[in-house]
């Protein structure tokens, strides 16, 4: 908040205090009577927060109010001595109440009613007497502690109230009761409203009275009274909380004031009153949420009085008044904002505080102009009595005098001298600085960064004038930092020059050097000569001599002395270091590593380029670069490309410095960063300035406009400089290993086999290597689990196979010698496997080296196995019948690109299947399958019992190896055969025994076994049908009864008649009765798959000497087909 | 008419500042510089509310007892600022607009010059002449 108090033209307290309705309370003995105390507290403490605000004051019963002035009947001969009386506002705020309330303890049924009635009346009378001549309202409150009046007794109370009113000469409306009980607060609220209404009527009457005066006034002599009366009405309206009416009257007062003829003698009074009325107007406007009106009124106010300076000798007074106007308005504005008024960037209190500061500056200048020579305060004090003037804004040496009277010239002169003397002692700078401070904080709030900067610069200037150079310099250097960003050269130069001035006054070697170096920058608008002087001054400083002061700066006599003192202080921190991140300058640097990474046993280059942008030669006696790694930082010295000491950089050229950068072994994996470039400016090292440039954020971004600079006319050097790429960090990688690792394998690997991989190492280093560790591990795909289905080992014959990685260690390997290792990989899943082979070793017993090889291996399936199912007649089937043998045909297809040798195969059957026959040797044993070839073997299998569910056949196991590998490397692969078939029940089993072939003309025996598999008796009809190719003997048609689990055998003797593949006589079975479980088609199917249909019959046996033609054997059913 | 005319680049660096009274140059630099606060505020406000994007005239930026400051922003964020005296009440908003249009077209001429580098301050004779005229009230 601005400091607007304790000064000339302060807003008086009675003006700034909030206008309350003033009500006096009497007859309350708060000290001795607890009931009265409670009532008083209820009135004063429990303030309501609505618009009705009342100011209570407790008057003792014998209080004497000031006597009222006699009423003036005519204004004809009255000449007012001033505009506003100083005591008037205070009178209505704190002295004369609008209502006096007399409290009196009296119950309706008080035993001493009559006595008390009279006492009450006398109290009322005494108060009335004290307020003689005033219209203050009087009210009486009876405090009643007794029980409430019973219903029906109202007549008595009404009568007593009437008599009391008569005795007290009181309007019955002004008599109140206050029962003292629990609801005190509620009663006081209601009383307060009643009092408030009385107060309103009092103020209304007052306003009417004042308005009534108007008719008596004339415009020639009573100008002041017009103002006064309107002001009074405004104020009274404010007391009765009628802001609109108050505002109207104040506005009229203001316009009447403007009609007053202003001369030198009453300028101050008019301005003071104008300020007060304006204050009221603005405050009311803000309170009514009409900020535009407030601002407009204030603008008008300033416009009207801006040029009303008054006597020239005391013009500072006018500036002080103006400054105060702005300041007070700013505070009002700010207060309104605190109460919720929104402000904007272009209209906020800061603007007014700034204006106030500006006027204070004018005031200071006026003071400098007028008060310089005043050294004596006149005696007697012409300003005596300043505090007890009757009117606002009058002069103590001629109070109440009208402008028409001639001034006492001597007294006037002395008084002016006294004012000037007083003004001289005022610390204007502090006022200005505090106003600027307020403005700055407001500018910050309302997003005016640039305005804020200007304000800060003004503040620094004021500090400079107040000779507080240190503070000024601090502010200026902050602003310099901000102005640098936007290239407002003129502003920046201005700030820089001011800062330099400060340094001349308050010596600081570092600050001077920093500023002088910054001044060399091309963006600073200074003459070349001036810049050169500054540069020269820098070197004077280095030699321990104070800088030459430019002519326009006045310095004290002890200039040299204070500078020498500062040298002593700065000597300890030599060399003088200037952080160039904080300055735009005449030098620009760029720095770069040669490579973004280099191997530990090699080195890279490190270069800096320095661009001289000023038009003078620059000597650099040393240049270093700070390179930092995560753990430490080192400083490297660089040598110029063209070596001279000191190195001189011509104007507008680029100098190049370089050195080589190498790393130690422990730095492997670290990243080095160039953090800063340090240049020693000067001829000799001990007389030089260290300029520290940050490598990261070069200030050149400030100075170089980024757009299209390359197209400028004289941009050759700039282009050259810009072309240099910056590479600020560089990582160290391990040296390259000269150990050759050759990996051989016969890929792809086959699923499940131990796949051998050969690793050949050869030492191509220049010395023997030792502690060689080869680590072979599986590369884990990101985010996936370790592959459990892949194994690695060195020796697959070993019993225990440890999980990967596997390690091979080797103590030593001489130069140019080599060694080989084989390791094996086995994967139980197809797909690609990646291996990492990491070889670490130590060269020459000191240098650690590492070589990493990656190996990808594809895993493929070696075989594919297909199972097919056939009946014994080699008809393909999809289901089997219990107890009926069938054939499983296994086809093994070789998918491997390599020829595979089958060692053995094995079909492991699962229940209920079993092999027919005891031993079952693989038919593929010792076969070799080439790519794409198929090996087939057949097994005769029997299902023991039926099964509803499809049964699986079992596991087919193949033991195999690659054809060219030794016998030990056998791999066993198992393939689960696909789920087969249902096994259906077969009630009968029919077999036919028949020789392999027959001869024409020679009989052959055939027998048919019919077996009942069920546990029931089955009856079937058998029918052997005739055939052209055979004659036969045996039962042709038969009804069979098959006992459970028995076999019935039918024997036939067949006599072939034709040769070739001939059809056998067809056997037919049909159920004997319809109730049987057997069905005809089921039996037909059974026969079809069980019995052979054809047989091969040879031509003749004549060669064997048999008579073919007539040889006939009779058929016999019992005959056992002997031939 | 105008007492100060300024052209400010898109990065808020001045390209051209000319004022009638050379003694007040620093003062005007500050004034124009401070006006950029309002320009930036208005530009960000315009960005939000999708008003007429073709309206380049920003209107009155700031007015003090002595001066009024008007602003104008091209589509390429080049800002024009004109300062007039507050006492000059005859100047209408439309006239200020016209002055900006004129300035814009002269500026466009300057930029069209193949030998002009957009990053450099404007040092065109024709441009100077137009601005001088503007300040003399001959437009």
Automatic annotation (TrEMBL), chain A:
InterPro entries: Gryzun, TPC11. GO terms for cellular component: cytoplasm. This is Trafficking protein particle complex subunit 11. Residues 900-1069 form the Gryzun putative trafficking through Golgi domain. Transmembrane segments: none annotated. Pfam families: Foie-gras_1, Gryzun. Residues 267-519 form the Trafficking protein particle complex subunit domain.
TrEMBL record, chain B:
Keywords: ER-Golgi transport, Transport. It holds the Pfam family Sedlin_N. One of its GO terms (cellular component) is perinuclear region of cytoplasm. Its main location: cytoplasm. Coiled coil: none annotated. CDD domains: TRAPPC2L. It is found in: Cytoplasm, Perinuclear region. GO terms for biological process: endoplasmic reticulum to Golgi vesicle-mediated transport. It comes from the Eukaryota. SUPFAM superfamilies: SNARE-like (SSF64356). Belongs to the TRAPP small subunits family. Sedlin subfamily. This is Trafficking protein particle complex subunit 2-like protein.
């Amino acid at each position: 908040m601005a400091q607007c108090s304790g000064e000339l033209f302060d807003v008086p307290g009675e003006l700034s205090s909030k206008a309350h309705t003033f009500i006096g309370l009497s007859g309350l003995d708060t000290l001795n009577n607890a009931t009265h105390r409670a009532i008083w507290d209820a009135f004063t403490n429990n303030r309501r927060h609505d618009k009705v605000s009342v100011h209570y004051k407790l008057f003792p019963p014998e209080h004497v109010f000031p006597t009222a002035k006699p009423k003036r009947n005519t204004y004809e001969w009255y000449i007012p001595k001033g505009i506003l009386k100083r005591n008037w506002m205070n009178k209505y705020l704190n002295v004369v109440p609008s209502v006096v309330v007399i409290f009196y303890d009296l119950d309706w049924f008080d035993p001493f009613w009559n006595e008390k009635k009279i006492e009450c009346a006398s109290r009322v009378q005494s108060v009335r007497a004290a307020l003689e001549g005033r219209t203050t309202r009087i009210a009486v409150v009876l405090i009643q502690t007794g029980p409430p009046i019973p219903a029906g007794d109202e007549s008595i109370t009404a009568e007593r109230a009437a008599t009391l009113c008569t005795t007290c000469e009181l309007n019955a409306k002004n008599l109140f009761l206050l029962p003292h009980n629990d609801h005190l607060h509620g009663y006081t609220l209601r009383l307060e409203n009643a009092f408030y209404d009385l107060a309103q009527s009092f103020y209304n009457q007052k306003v009417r009275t004042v308005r009534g005066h108007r008719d008596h006034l004339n415009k020639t002599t009573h100008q002041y009274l017009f103002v006064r009366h309107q002001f009074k009405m405004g104020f009274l309206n404010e007391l009765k909380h009628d802001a609109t009416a108050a505002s109207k009257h104040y506005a009229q007062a203001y316009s009447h004031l403007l009609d007053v003829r202003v001369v030198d003698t009453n300028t101050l009074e008019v301005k003071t009153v104008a300020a007060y009325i304006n204050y009221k107007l603005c405050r009311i406007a803000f309170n009514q949420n009409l900020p535009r009106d407030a601002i407009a009124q204030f603008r008008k106010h300033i416009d009207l009085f801006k040029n009303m300076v008054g006597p020239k000798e005391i013009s500072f007074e006018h500036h002080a008044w103006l400054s105060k106007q702005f300041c007070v308005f700013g505070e009002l504005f700010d207060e309104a904002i605190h109460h919720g008024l929104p402000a904007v960037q272009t209209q906020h209190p800061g603007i007014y505080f700034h204006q106030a500061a500006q006027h204070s500056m004018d005031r200071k200048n006026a003071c400098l102009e007028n008060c310089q020579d005043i050294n004596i305060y006149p005696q007697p004090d012409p300003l005596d009595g300043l505090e007890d003037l009757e009117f606002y804004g009058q002069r103590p040496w001629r109070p109440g005098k009208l402008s028409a009277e001639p001034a006492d010239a001597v007294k006037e002169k002395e008084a002016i001298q006294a004012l000037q003397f007083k003004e001289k002692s005022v610390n204007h700078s502090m006022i200005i600085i505090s106003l600027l401070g307020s403005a700055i904080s407001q500018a910050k709030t309302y997003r005016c960064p640039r305005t804020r900067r200007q304000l800060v610069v003004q503040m620094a200037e004021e500090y400079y004038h107040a000779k507080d150079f240190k503070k000024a310099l601090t502010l200026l250097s902050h602003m310099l930092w901000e102005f640098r960003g936007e290239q407002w050269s003129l502003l920046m130069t201005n700030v820089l020059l001011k800062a330099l001035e400060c340094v001349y006054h308050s010596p600081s070697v570092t600050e001077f050097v920093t500023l002088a170096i910054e001044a060399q920058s091309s963006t600073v608008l200074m003459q070349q000569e001036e810049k050169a002087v500054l540069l020269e001054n820098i070197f004077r400083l280095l030699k321990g001599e104070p800088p030459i002061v430019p002519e326009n700066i006045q310095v004290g006599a002890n200039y040299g002395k204070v500078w020498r003192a500062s040298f002593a202080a700065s000597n300890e921190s030599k060399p003088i270091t200037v952080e160039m991140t904080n300055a735009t300058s005449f030098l620009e640097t760029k720095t770069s590593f040669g490579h973004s990474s280099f191997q530990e046993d090699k080195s890279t280059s490190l270069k800096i380029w320095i661009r001289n942008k000023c038009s003078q030669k620059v000597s650099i006696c040393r240049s270093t670069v700070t390179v930092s790694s995560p753990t430490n930082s080192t400083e490297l010295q660089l040598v110029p490309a063209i070596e001279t000491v000191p190195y001189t950089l011509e104007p507008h050229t680029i100098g190049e410095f370089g050195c080589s950068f190498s790393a130690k072994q422990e730095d492997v994996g670290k990243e080095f960063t160039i953090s800063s470039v340090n240049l020693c400016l000067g001829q000799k090292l001990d007389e030089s300035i260290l300029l520290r440039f940050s490598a990261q954020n070069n200030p050149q971004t400030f100075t170089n406009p980024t757009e299209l600079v390359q197209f400028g006319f004289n941009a050759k050097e700039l282009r050259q400089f810009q072309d240099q790429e910056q590479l600020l960090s560089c990582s160290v990688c391990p040296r390259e290993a000269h150990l050759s690792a050759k990996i051989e394998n016969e890929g792809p690997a086959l699923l499940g086999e131990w796949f051998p991989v050969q690793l050949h190492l050869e030492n191509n280093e220049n010395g023997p290597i030792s502690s060689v560790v080869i680590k072979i591990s599986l590369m884990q795909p990101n985010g996936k689990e370790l592959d459990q289905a892949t194994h690695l080992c060195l020796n697959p014959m070993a019993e225990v196979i440890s999980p990967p990685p596997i390690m091979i260690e080797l103590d030593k390997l001489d130069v140019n010698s080599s060694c080989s290792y084989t390791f094996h990989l086995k994967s139980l899943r197809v797909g690609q496997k990646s291996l990492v082979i990491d070889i670490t070793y130590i060269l020459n017993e000191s240098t650690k080296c590492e070589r990493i090889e990656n190996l990808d291996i594809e895993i493929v399936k070696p075989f594919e196995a297909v199972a097919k199912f056939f009946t014994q007649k080699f008809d393909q089937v999809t289901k089997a019948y219990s107890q009926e043998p069938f054939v499983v045909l296994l086809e093994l297809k070789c998918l491997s690109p390599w020829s595979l040798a089958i060692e053995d195969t094995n079909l492991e059957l699962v229940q209920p299947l079993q092999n027919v026959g005891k031993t079952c040797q693989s038919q593929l044993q010792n076969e070799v399958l080439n790519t794409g070839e198929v090996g087939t073997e057949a097994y005769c299998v029997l299902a023991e019992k039926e099964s509803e569910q499809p049964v699986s056949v079992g596991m087919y196991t193949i033991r195999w190896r690659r054809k060219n590998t030794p016998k030990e490397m056998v791999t066993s692969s198992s393939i689960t055969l696909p789920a087969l078939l249902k096994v259906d029940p077969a009630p009968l089993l029919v077999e036919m025994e028949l020789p392999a072939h027959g001869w024409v003309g020679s009989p052959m025996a055939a027998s048919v076994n019919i077996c009942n598999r069920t546990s029931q008796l089955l009856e079937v009809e058998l029918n052997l049908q005739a055939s052209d190719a055979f004659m036969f003997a045996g039962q042709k048609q038969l009804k069979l009864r098959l006992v459970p689990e028995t076999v019935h055998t039918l024997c036939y003797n067949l006599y072939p008649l034709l040769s070739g593949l001939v059809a056998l006589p067809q056997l037919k079975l049909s159920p004997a009765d319809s109730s049987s479980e057997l069905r005809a088609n089921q039996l037909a199917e059974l026969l079809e798959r069980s019995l052979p249909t054809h047989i091969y019959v040879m031509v003749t046996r004549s060669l064997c000497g048999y008579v073919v033609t007539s040889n006939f054997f009779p058929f016999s059913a019992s005959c056992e087909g002997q031939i | 008419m105008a007492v100060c005319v300024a052209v400010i680049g898109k990065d808020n660096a001045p390209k051209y500042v000319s004022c009638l009274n050379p003694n007040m140059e620093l003062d005007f630099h500050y004034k124009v510089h401070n006006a950029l606060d309002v320009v930036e505020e208005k530009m960000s406000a315009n960005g939000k509310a999708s008003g007429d994007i073709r309206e380049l005239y920003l209107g009155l930026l700031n007015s003090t007892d002595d001066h009024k400051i008007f602003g104008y922003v091209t589509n390429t964020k080049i800002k024009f600022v004109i300062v007039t005296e507050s006492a000059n009440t005859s100047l209408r908003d439309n006239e200020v607009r016209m002055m900006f249009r004129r300035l814009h077209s002269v500026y466009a001429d300057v930029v069209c010059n193949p030998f002009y580098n957009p990053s450099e301050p404007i040092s065109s004779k024709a441009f100077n002449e137009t601005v001088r005229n503007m300040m003399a009230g001959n437009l």
